[in-house]
Structures are given as structure tokens and as C-alpha cells.
Specification:
Helices cover 84% and strands 0% of the residues. The chain has 190 residues and is mainly alpha-helical.
């Protein structure tokens, strides 16, 4: 398996939680109320799995490996991906602020939550599309078999030592529970 295939598999899990977030946003708009438990779980997932696990592997292993092959961190596809990670983090922080605001009785929190979610969902879907269909192909073409093997080892090391294998599984399980709650198929076998 190639490192980019691992990242693509993780994209399927992230996409399923995006599907859940879309349903949450629709419900929050209709009801003018955030389902704070589900929203908190989705936010936790985006912070720890999408960002802390998935984006961390891209930013700390994949992108530097691509830079060693001549890809610029300041222009081009790597720069775009880094920028979009930053924009996505701000949207997640915005959703968290609105969950907190609703807890303090702010009647406009649901409306603002929906705005943040509706900016985040297409951003991340388009981001995933670019990575799956452009960036990862470029990386696969640039990397030798030795590069691929080294990157796989770095991914495994990050999962063991930085993220924790149990933590990754915890968030895959969380994605499955959210999918079940919204009557969507599980993101991948757990």
C-alpha cells in the first residue's frame, strides 16, 4: 500500500463525517438549535482525526517529502493544501465558538454555526478532491519505491508515537457512530 492510499482511505472517513455535519447544519437551520452533543463529537473528530492525525501526516511527512522532490511550500499545490488546512481550522474553531455560545443562551448561535459549517463542508470536500485526484498522483509519480517505503514507516511511526493507534481507531469508531445516528453507511469497516 502507498502512503497516499492510506490518506485516501482516511478521506472516506472524513467525508462521512462531513455528510453528518451537513445533516446537522440542515437541522440547526430548521430548528434554530444546534444538536450540541453531535456537533461536539463532529468538532472533536475534525480536530483530532482530520487535523491531528490526517493533516498532521500530510504536513509533517508527505509535504516535506514532496518538498525534497522539488515541490515548493510557498507556491503550487502544497502551498494551496497548507492554506486550506488553515482555513479549515478556523471554520472548526468558529463552529466550536457557536456550540459554546448556544450553551450560554445565545439565540443566534445556530445561525452562525450553520454559516461556519456551510463554509467548511465544501472547502474540505474540494480539498479532498484536489488531493485524491491531483496532489497524490503527483506525489506517487515523484516518489521512488524507497521513498514510498520510508514514508509508510513515518506514517506508522506517527500513528504509534504521536497520534496513538488506539486514538485513530477511537475516531474511526466515532465516525461510524455519527454515521449510524444519521442513518448513513459506516465510513469503512471498524
Amino acid at each position: 500500500m502507498k502512503p497516499t492510499e492510506i490518506l485516501s482511505q482516511e478521506h472516506r472517513v472524513i467525508e462521512r463525517v462531513l455528510d453528518c455535519l451537513e445533516i446537522m447544519a440542515d437541522q440547526a437551520q430548521r430548528q434554530q438549535q444546534i444538536d450540541t452533543q453531535a456537533a461536539a463529537e463532529a468538532i472533536d473528530f475534525f480536530r483530532h482525526f482530520a487535523d491531528g492525525c490526517h493533516h498532521a501526516k500530510e504536513e509533517n511527512q508527505l509535504f516535506p517529502a514532496m518538498q525534497r522532490k522539488g515541490f515548493s511550500p510557498d507556491t503550487g499545490p502544497v502551498a494551496v493544501m497548507l492554506y486550506e488546512h488553515t482555513v479549515g481550522r478556523e471554520a472548526v474553531r468558529g463552529m466550536q465558538r457557536e456550540v459554546d455560545a448556544q450553551g450560554k443562551g445565545d439565540p443566534q448561535a445556530a445561525e452562525r454555526f450553520v454559516e461556519h459549517a456551510r463554509r467548511f463542508i465544501p472547502l474540505l470536500r474540494e480539498h479532498i478532491e484536489k488531493e485524491d485526484h491531483c496532489l497524490f498522483a503527483m506525489a506517487d509519480q515523484a516518489f521512488s519505491e524507497e521513498d514510498q517505503a520510508e514514508l509508510l514507516e513515518r506514517f506508522a511511526e506517527a500513528e504509534r508515537e504521536v497520534i496513538g493507534e488506539a486514538t485513530k481507531q477511537k475516531y474511526i469508531d466515532l465516525a461510524s457512530r455519527l454515521a449510524q445516528r444519521y442513518e448513513l453507511p459506516a465510513p469503512w469497516p471498524t
